[in-house]
Amino acid sequence: MSNSSEMNRGAGANLCRHLNDAAKHSPGQLAVAVQQASGSIFSAKTLSYQEITFAELESRSDKLAHALNEYGIKRGMKAVLMVTPCIDFFTLTFALFKAGIIPILVDPGMGVKNLKQCFIESQPDAFIGIPKAHLARRLFSWGKDSVKHLVTVGGCGLWGGVSLNRLMEDAASTSSVSPYQMAWLDEDEMAAILFTSGSTGTPKGVVYSHKMFEAQITALKHDYGIASGERDLATFPLFSLFGPALGMASIVPEMDASKPITANPGYLFAAIEKYQCSNMFVNPALIERLGQAGVTQTKTHQLSSIKRVISAGAPATIASIKHFSQMLNDGVEVLNSYGATESLPLSKMGSKALFATTQVTDAGGGICVGSPIEGVDIAIIDIDEAPIAQWHDSLSLKPGEIGEIVVKGPMVSRSYYRRDSATEQAKIIDGSAIRHRMGDLGYLDEAGELWMCGRKAHRVDTSQSVKGEPSRYFSIPCERIFNTHPQVKRSALVAVKVADQTVPLLCIELEKSLGCSMGASLFAELNEIAERHVQTKGIKRFLIHPDFPVDIRHNAKIFREKLAVWAQKNHKE
C-alpha cells in the first residue's frame, strides 16, 4: 500500500487496497487479459488479447476515480454498471470502489421487467453502460426518475452524458493525475448492491460491504489455496474481480457470461493454453459444455496447466464432473462450492469425496455439499415461513433432521436494499452477527457435512397423510431417485390439486434419443421405483415434458413454478 493511502486511511475497509498492494509489489505483472474474437461468419475467427498490468490498472482506475468525481459522481452515490467484461469493466469497478461510489450490478439475463424493477428499487444516481444498455435504458425508461449522470462505454456520448474515453481524456489533461486517495468505509457500510437472478422470485438487491468482500478473498486464499501470481480463467464477471485483489491475473474469454452454455469451448481452451491458467471458475453448464467438447471418442483435450477448478451456482451432476475431469491432471479436483449471492462461499467438497456419495444420493439421501469453510457456522431449523427475530441455539435441529439451512459468517450479507420485509423474512439477529436463512432445505450428518434436499419453496406438502406414505416430499431426494432410471434425463417434483387435495406429481424429461410417449412399461417401472423408497412412496402421477424450462446462466436450475402450472393443466384426475 502506498504511504499516501496508508496515511489517509484511518479506520475502515476498501477492497482496492489489495490492488494497490499488487501494483506496489508486482507492478509489471499481468492483472487482466481479455480475449476477443474477430472475423466474418464465413471464416474462422481470429483471437486477440487486450492486456493490462497491475500498475496500469491501478493508475487507470485512479485517473477514472478523479474523472468521475469531476463529472459529479461522488462518494455515496449509486451507479448502475452494465458493461460487458473488458478492460474498461475492471477499470470502472475499481474506480467506483476507490471513490466510495456504490456500483449496482445486475444480471442482464433476468429479463426486462425484472431489470426495471431493480432500477425502481435502487434509485441509481448514475448509469454507466455500453451503447446497447443505454438503448434499453431509453426504450424501457430505466432509472428515469433518479439518474442524473450518464456515461457511455465503448461508444460516443450521443446517448446523453459523456463517453468514458472523453472522461479519461479530460482527466489526463488536468492536474488530477495524482494517486487517488481512496475512500475508507466502515466495514459494514454499503459498498455495492448485487441483484439476485430472481430464479425463485422477484430479484432482490443484496447489500455488500467491503467486510464481505474481504471475507470472500480470505476464503479463496486460505480454503481454496489461491496464491499471488496465479492465472484464472474467469467466466463470471463478479468472480473475475477477485483476481486482481488476490494478485492473480484474470483471463476473460470471449463468451456471453449470462449464457455460458453458448460459449465456444475452443476459445476457452485457447485462453487457458496461451496464459497457462492454473485456476478455473466454471458453473455446471460450462462443466458439461467443456467436457462434451474436450472429451471425444478419438481424443481428450488436456488442461495440463490447471491446478484447481471451482464450480458454483448450482449442483453439477456427477456424470458431467467425471466427464470433464478426464481433461485434468491426476490429483486435480473440481471443488464444488455451496452458497448464494447473499453468502458465498459457505462450504466446499472435492470431486473425489463427492463421487463416494453417489449411492447415498441415488437412494434419496440428498446431495452432499461438504463441510463449512473456516469461520462459517451452519445450522438447520424447522421448516417455517414465519420470520425469526432473534437466534437461540434451541432452534437447531439434530443431525439427520431435514430443515431450513441457516448460516453465519463474515461473508453473510446483513440486509436487502430497501426490502425490509424480505430482510425480516431472511435474517436472524445473533448478537452482533446476522444469520441468513438460505431458503434451501437440508440436513447435517454426524460428521458435520451438509446435505442439500432442495429449495424450501419446492417441497410438496400433501393435504392428507396416507399410512406408509410421507406427508412431505423434498425435491432433490425424490428427483435423484427417479433420475437413476436409464430413460430419464431429469425430473422435477411439483404439486397439483386433485379433488381439492394437494398431491405430488413428477415431471419427466426423457433422454433426447427417446420418444416422448410414455409406454405402460415405463409407467410401471416409475411406479415400482416410487414404492421402493420411503422418500417417494405415494408418488403415482407422472407427466412427460419435452424440454424443461431452465435458467439461462446455469442451465440446471429448473423453473418448477412454470412446470407446476403446466402440470396442473395437463394431468388427468
Automatic annotation (TrEMBL):
InterPro entries: AMP-binding_CS, AMP-dep_synth/lig_dom, ANL_N_sf, ATP-dep_AMP-bd_enzyme, OlefBLtnSynShew
Annotated AMP-dependent synthetase/ligase domain residues: 47-417
Keywords: Membrane, Transmembrane, Transmembrane helix
Gene3D superfamilies listed in its UniProt record: N-terminal domain of ligase-like (3.40.50.12780)
Regions crossing the membrane: 79-106
PANTHER family per record: LONG-CHAIN-FATTY-ACID--COA LIGASE, NONRIBOSOMAL PEPTIDE SYNTHASE PES1 (EUROFUNG)-RELATED
Protein name, as recorded: Peptide synthase
Classification of source organism: Bacteria, Pseudomonadati, Pseudomonadota, Gammaproteobacteria, Alteromonadales
